[in-house]
Amino acid sequence: MRGVLGLVFLPWQLCLAFNIDIQSWIALSPPPSVTAKTSLFGHSVALGRDVAFIGAPRHDTSGGVFKCPFQARSPLGKTSNLGCTQINDNLSHKTADFLGASMTTSRQGELFTCAPRQGSNRYLTLQNPTGTCYRFTEDRNNSLREYFRFDRKLLGSSDYGLLTIMGHELTMSEDDILVIGAPMARTRDFNWNLERTVGSIVRASPFFIPRAKESPWSRVTLSNLGDPHTYDLAGSAIVRGRYYYDFGPNHYAVGAPKAIMMRGAVFVCPDCLSPQNTRSDKVRFDKQGFSLEGFQLGSRFGQTLCTLDLNGDGFDDLVVGAPLFTTKREQGEAGNVYVYKTNVRGHVTTMDLMNQDLPRKVESGARFGATLASLGNLDGDGLEDFAVGAPYENDGAGAIYVYRGSRSFVFSDISQKLTPADFPRLNMANFGFSANANQDVDGNGIPDLIIGSRGSRHTVLLRSLKVERIAPRSSFVVPTKVNPKDNFFMIRVIATVNQVPTSIWRAQIWLNFADDRIEVLKNNATIELNRVQQAEASFHVQSLQKDFGLDDHSTPRPIFFKGFVNWDLDPSAPKGFHVPIKDPLNDLLETMSFEVPLQTGCEDNVCKCSVELSKPNDINRVVAGTGKGLEVTMTIVNHGSEPSYENKLEITSAYPIPFPNRLKCDNLTDAGGSEQKTTYSYVCGLPGVAANGERKLSLVFDIYDWALFTDTDAIIVETKLNHGCDATIQKSWNNLQQTLRFPIEFKSEIITKSLSSNIQTQYDYNSTMTLEFKHVYLLTNIGPSPTNRPFTFNVYVPDTEALDYDLAESNLKCLPMTSGLVAGIHPPYTSGTKALSCQVETCNVYQCTIPTGMAKDQVESVNLNMAFQAEKAEMLFEDIYHFAVHTAVRTQGRYNYDDFTKFITEFYSLEVSSLAAMAKSYWPYIIGVVLGLLLLLVIFALLWKFNIFSKTRLFKDQLEEVDKKA
């Protein structure tokens, strides 16, 4: 059968929706011989390249497929009547084949369609329709060709006995292979008395069907043990998406609307149509696949599916329709849609239900969710959008709801709702029974939408308008300073966007002000950005008062404005297929505020005088003890055009001013202060300050007595300046007050020194010995600052019965604190000596305090008188003793044992001391004897040297010889 379809472009001046254009659309209608209700024209729809395909599965009892070419890229207002051809005329007609029940197109624009009730196969005692699928390719024959027909021999050992109603749903694999749904597929499960009708999906070329024992939708589970004839209808919906990190590109979601005891289910599996992977353990359903279960009995959960990336994370999410869902008793078959988010964590994928309450009109019998269509990135925001059909809403009129992608999966608003009322001349019914947006027919880069209306003779093709987003960043150019004598000035508004727009934008500018000194001749303007980034407008502002109301004694008050810029596409711009629209969520209202400063009647200065007291010189910190005076430099500045008079500076501080001549006051008077002189007040009369002049002041405060600062951490000085601007008009400027604060830092260092007296030893023959000695400690503050609080230090003395001692002091208070061993004290002992120290003996600790603190170079002494009795110590006569006393200065709130000052004394035992005393008494005699012996030895040596002994012997021999002779 052939006929002519009316191809009409109908522009309607309705409100422009976002962003599917309902002002211009293409109406596709069958020839008169095709009746609406009997043919089911619009049951399925698909888009090819410049052609629309429409299925009418009951046309002429066997079904029909119509091809409707169009010229979508032609300018608006021009129509093309190229005719429409029924492309299945070459096929033999059989009753109830239902040809055109499903459609899909490949990336090359080829059409695939099926007749799910065509053909039959006998299985056991049953004769069942199997289904046949066809392919249409543009060639000279311009007709359908058989693509796939079922043969039971193809099943082999797949555990399936028959594929029934094959072709109810279609989709394409990544490599453009047809994947077919067979919701009435029967398995040969020999564990049951009868076969089970569960459904499945198959790949057409080469043929492949998952094994029944391995596919998730046909395995025997606890959920279907009690229902061998489940009629799950798996394969009623099929979508391909990216749900896993790996396992190839072909991941599928399969709807089974009557599974799980009629609640419905969706089965998700990775690459479940690959022979290698399906029979492999790595894709077993219990390890890698999962299912989503319905929530209501008989709701047909999984009847429709839509896959798209709603949140832009790179993985596809899933929208599941349940068109027979009942919300209330009186709202049967209202329908519902569930939105699932895909979570991919490594090799594990889960899906979480994120939304089950999309905004819509809830109506009994509407069957919301009977149609689901992915619209791609319809609005250009990087997130994919989708459409939901409710073909029986409003007493069968139908509707399509459009929802924008959301990173949060929150759909608070309907992006757009399409109803037959948007096309008043078409009189459509069951609008939205089918929808498809798989092609960009007008070439603007956005998928376009075709919607089938199965209960009427019309299908509409709607183009999607490109959405343009801009980021406005306008600015206001105002004068640097306005001279009031001019009585007017100009303001420029530069309207700017962040990118060159592809269309004409209009910026509406308003100026808002609340100032009775001025008026704006025209406070609004409209400028146009015709594919440029920047344009500007000017505003004329004039004064309503002379010199803007500025008198000789007033401070110039700036003029304050608020500006608003509202951006919109120019509605008067010529329309066309490629004219974009704006995003309603794009914030296109700018609000800015600005000031216009005024000069004064005295040019840049306030008329008469304008005096201010500058901040003092930068004194970050005062170190106590480093100077006798604190010098603060301040400046009085007159910005006016006339000199100031009667300048008086009031000064209040806790410290006197010893050098008033440095202030250069006309007169300095003592204002008294407090009776106890804890504060000092002065009034300094100053000469006038010339116009545009200044006068420097140098305040020197006496801070020599640092005892005043031991209880404070800062020097506080308060100043107040009074002045007059006219010889006859006195003005007191109370705002010319300052409180000056200068932090004080105390830097002091205490050193200790020991002066030990000689040991006085007394002993007797009863083995009793007493040693008396004295330690004098000198503590000196080498500054530069005094100590700002009472100064304390500790003295550690070994506690032994043999030692008697007392602390003598002049300006000290020494109190016993603790007793015990003191760890960390390591005096340098002499090798071979016995130690008496705080590390060995129990130690008495005395805390000594100087209540008044210590000034710089102040020296304090501590006398420690000690007596040691050897008898009580049970000393051995051969022992040598080493005695140590320690002094610790408190530093930063703690005692540092490493900084201890150690005073060491060595003394001997009784025997050694007695021998030493005896040696001290008889040493002259011993020295005399030694010297006499040495003298004799010298004389003997001399006699020997000169042979005195030889001569004497010779003389003796001669005498004996003489005597003999005589």
Offer a concise description of the structure:
This protein is mostly beta strands and 966 residues long. A hairpin with a 5-residue loop joins strand 54 (760-763) and strand 55 (769-781). The N and C termini lie far apart (200 Å).
CATH architecture of the domain at 750-908: Sandwich
- Return the CATH topology of the domain at 750-908: Immunoglobulin-like
Task: List unreliable stretches of 5+ residues.
Answer: 1-16, 74-81, 277-287, 727-734, 891-898
Q: What is the name of the CATH superfamily of the domain at 750-908?
A: ntegrin, alpha v. Chain A, domain 4
Q: Tell me the distance between the termini.
A: 200 Å
The number of helical elements comes to: 7
Mean pLDDT: 76
Given this structure, which CATH class of the domain at 750-908 is correct? Mainly Beta
| Alpha carbon gyration radius | 56 Å
Say what oligomer this is.
single chain
Protein name: Integrin alpha-2 domain-containing protein
GO molecular function, one term: integrin binding
Pfam families: FG-GAP
Family: Belongs to the integrin alpha chain family.
Q: Would you kindly provide a written description of the structure presented here, covering whatever features stand out?
A:
Residues 1-17 form the signal peptide. The chain contains seven helices and 64 strands. The chain is mainly beta. Among the domains are: 1-116 and 426-465, no CATH class; 468-596, Immunoglobulins (Immunoglobulin-like, Sandwich), CATH 2.60.40.10; 611-745, Immunoglobulin-like, CATH 2.60.40; 750-908, ntegrin, alpha v. Chain A, domain 4 (Immunoglobulin-like), CATH 2.60.40; 922-966, no CATH class. Strands 56, 58, 59, 60, 62, 63 and 64 form a seven-stranded mixed β-sheet that branches. It has a six-stranded mixed β-sheet with strand order 45-52-51-47-49-48, with no helix packed on it. The longest helix is centred in the C-terminal third of the chain and has 36 residues, at 910-945.
